[in-house]
Amino acid sequence: MINQSFSLRITVHFHHGTFGKIMEDKITKQTSQVFDILRQVFGFESFRPNQEEIIKNILNKKDVFAVMPTGGGKSLCYQLPAKIMKGTTVVISPLISLMKDQVDAALENGISAAFINSSLPVAETASVFRRLRSNSLNLLYIAPERFAMTGFFETLKTVPISLFAVDEAHCISEWGHDFRPDYLSLSNIVKSFPSVAIAAFTATATQKVQDDIIVKLGLRSPFTVRASFNRPNLFYRVESKRGLGEQILELLRRHASESGIIYRTTRDSVTELADMLNGKGVRALPYHAGLTQEERKKNQEAFNRDEIDVITATIAFGMGIDKSNVRFVIHADLPKNIEGYYQETGRAGRDGEPAECVLFFGREDIPRIKYFIDQATDENERSVATDKLNQMVRYASHNVCRRRQLLAYFGEKYAEHNCGACDICTGTVQKADITIDAQKFMSAISRTEQRFGIMHIIDIVTGADTKRIRELGHHSIKTFGAGKDKDKHHWRFIADELLAQELISQDGDRYPVLKITAKGKKVLFGNEKVIGLKREDAEKKRRSGKGTEFEAYDESLFERLRALRKGLADEQSVPPYIIFSDKTLHEMCRRYPSSLPDMAEISGVGAAKLEHYGDVFTKVIKTYLEENPGVSIPKKRPDDTEAVRDSSKTKGETVEKTLELFRQGLSIEEITKERNLAASTITGHMEKLIMDGYDINIDRLIEPSKRNEIEKLFQSLGSMQLYPVVEHFKGTVSYDEARLVRACLRRGKE
Ligand code: ADP
Ligand code: MG
Ligand code: ZN
């Protein structure tokens, strides 16, 4: 279908006549070939934005310059043509670790690929060169320093080269944050291979870097693509920092046994956080520049292979992460600027599935960053850095869609009124008239002659009984205790909002005191109103609001497929996401493909993967379906079914219905029959109800002694994964039972 409509679309641009006809045929043929390969080799049904145009230009031997966000699908843009064109496509890629994963991923798809870099033993390097000379490589990945070695260009000249692809091309720019001097030798490609096209790819958004790349590589009026930087599957959220450890743990509970990155500023805090998490049973490892290269590599590898769930890291961690199933990125400290922040959060959700980016924002981080900025000797540098920091602070404190603000930073205007995937737009943060609170707070500042800091003012407003308050006699001022009906967090939030709106300011470096600005006086003594960000029921909304457009999947089945994937990955020592991405597994957990033809329909399952893994995965799914006879399998593809959309819309109601029946005394089995739904679906409802804190009599669901044993095992395993538990009991405990016990444990912790 797609082929036909596409070739029709293309042909209208051509004039009649023989030449037109020949071109027409050629292009139609090329188009259908491109789609065939997309489907058969990569297992994808359609292109992501810009991929198709880029591939067309590469096939027409035109230079290409493409700026696409992380996860935009840059690799496919050169891997697909590499499979079509005669000769070898040479990919210049900066990181050794990444190179191996990319080659493994290509091999998994049945594309002949190899890499050469310093980590490769001499004998193997020689063998790769032999394969290159015998023209049997579609893709050759090469580290840039190789181009500076004598004789390398000469060797390359003896073989047919179809394309030079420069990945992470910002490394060639001195303005880029990852500048690599050995990339400069790439400037010679154009001279040595005048007839071979070059395609450069980067995710760096700044214009300066972009211009520099084109000049340095000597691209010849390249076909240029600048994709939108919007990442619709990422949910952006800012939370006030208070009791960071607890806040992080709470978030991790929602992401149990999912992969995530937590960024912190200092090495010590990175190590401490990893220790703390391990103490709480979270599998976490640290990553920072103070570790030996060996340790860093080991920890990164463990993360890549799903051996640990969380990596705590400084910004040293990032380059060379192609892991596609990162489900959350947390910034536990304020980043220095939006550029870095966006790049770091961009590591979440490469597979296009929902992922969450949370910034824990505390004003106390600001002076720390200012301190570093002040170390710079160049005044211009200092002022640029200060501006960038202010933008970051505004991002965190203003009542404006986070996505809109992020994209605006990169010069992109976000047209939608409501992005649907940030805390501001989804109403997790609401607007509120906070005039009264603002007046109480500012009155306390005013009545103490603007000589005290935030914490002290909060103490006054909340009526705290501290020694300092008594000594200063502040318990007798009129505003003392005027806001004691609300807690300190609330007042901290008010303080932050007033600062962000410049109604008050902080004065003094070491012991900043609060002053009321001219604007603030209008609120205190006049009748100006203050509208701020209000947080209400944040927790409740967040749970249900997560990824509004994205569909639920069968989590019990997912656990099984995930375990299967991990086993297969380990056998071949490749990262699990290379076998199948989370996105692909999620789709399996919605459509339950139990035959090879059904499996071939799943996005991300190409011919090679179908052959390698089709049998084992369908087998597990088949078994699962036998064990859960009530599972209803959707007929249509999820992206065009109304049925699925409907089900998400009514999810709240359907959980309620289950609760109602349960309260009437029905067992899970009876509810399953009554509602004609799968047992695992009903268990899912119960799980949600338990975790949402409903009063559910667990004893009715699972025998207490059994529950006790399962609980103990969870605790001794130190992980919340279901698979090991079910495995341990050798058939006497079902996934659904383990899920229910896990839900109780999770609730118990809150
Ligand atoms: P980038 O290098 O731009 O950050 P990748 O090339 O690593 O992104 O691709 C990110 C993910 O998107 C990979 O898991 C890849 O398989 C997937 N992907 C790429 N193109 C498509 C497509 N057309 N349809 C579905 N998934 C795709
Ligand atoms: Mg990439
Ligand atoms: Zn928004």
Please explain how this structure is put together:
There is one protein chain. It contains 34 helices and 17 strands. With 750 residues, the protein is of the alpha/beta class. It has four domains: 41-226, P-loop containing nucleotide triphosphate hydrolases (Rossmann fold); 234-426, Rossmann fold; 429-536, Arc Repressor Mutant, subunit A (Orthogonal Bundle); 555-749, DNA polymerase, domain 1. The strands form four sheets. It has a seven-stranded parallel β-sheet, with helices on both faces. The two termini are 52 Å apart. Mean pLDDT is 86; it is low at 1-16, 536-549 and 637-650. The structure holds adenosine-5'-diphosphate, magnesium ion and zinc ion. Zinc ion is lined by residues 401-403, 419, 422, 424-425. Zinc ion (ZN) binds next to α16.
Note the topology.
Blueprint (H helix, E strand, L loop, with lengths): L1 H10 L6 H23 L10 H9 L4 E4 L6 H11 L3 E5 L3 H13 L4 E4 L5 H12 L5 E4 L9 H6 L3 E6 L22 H4 L5 E5 L4 H11 L5 E4 L7 E7 L3 H11 L4 E5 L3 H13 L4 E4 L5 H12 L5 E4 L12 E6 L6 H8 L9 E7 L3 H11 L3 H19 L4 H8 L19 E5 L1 H13 L6 H8 L5 H6 L15 H13 L3 E4 L5 E4 L1 H8 L5 E5 L2 H8 L9 H18 L3 H4 L2 H10 L4 H5 L6 H21 L14 H8 L1 H13 L4 H8 L3 H13 L12 H14 L4 H7 L6 H15 L1
Parallel strand pairs: 1-6, 1-7, 2-4, 2-5, 3-4, 5-6, 8-13, 9-11, 9-12, 10-11, 12-13
Antiparallel strand pairs: 14-17, 15-16
Bound molecules: adenosine-5'-diphosphate, magnesium ion and zinc ion.
CATH superfamily of the largest domain: HRDC domain
Q: Kindly state the percentage of residues in helix.
A: 40-55%
Rg on CA atoms, Å? 29 Å
Largest sheet: 7 strands, parallel
Shape estimate: globular
Note poorly predicted spans: 1-16, 536-549, 637-650
CATH architecture of the largest domain: Orthogonal Bundle
Name the average pLDDT. 86
| DSSP helical segment count | 34
What top-tier CATH class of the largest domain fits best?
Mainly Alpha
**Percent of residues in beta strands?**
5-15%
Number of domains: 4
N-to-C span = 52 Å
Structural class: alpha/beta
Bound molecules: adenosine-5'-diphosphate, magnesium ion, zinc ion
